Amino acid sequence: AYDHRATYNPHLQRIEMYLVASAAQRVDLPGLRVKLDIQAGEALRTEISCKYDRQMIEAMFQASGFELDRWFTDPHRLFALALAQKR
Question: CA-CA distance, 86 to 19, in Å (whole number)?
Fold first, then answer.
């Protein structure tokens, strides 16, 4: 009863995943004692996948007491693995 939608949010530099209801429905969440009414076309965000560049990673490390030790990347520079150490 749902369609999958993935979008890239360039402002926040992240991929967002959604389930979009293909029809109106009522969802029962018995553990929470809640019933949700979901309208056709209503989107439920299910995942956020953040994308960071090297400069952003270095700033986050710096703010948390670490420093970038090594930066490994693929030949096209599409993916990276960062190795940090405590300052």
Answer: 40
Report how far Cα 85 is from the mean position of its chain's Cα atoms: 25
Overall residue count recorded for the chain in this entry: 87
**Whether the model pTM is above 0.85:** no
* Token couple for 27: 């969802």
CB-CB contact of 63 with 57 (8 Å): no
CA 34 from centre of chain: 26
pLDDT digits (tens, 9 = 90+) for 23-74: 999 999 998 999 999 999 999 999 999 888 899 999 999 999 999 999 999 9
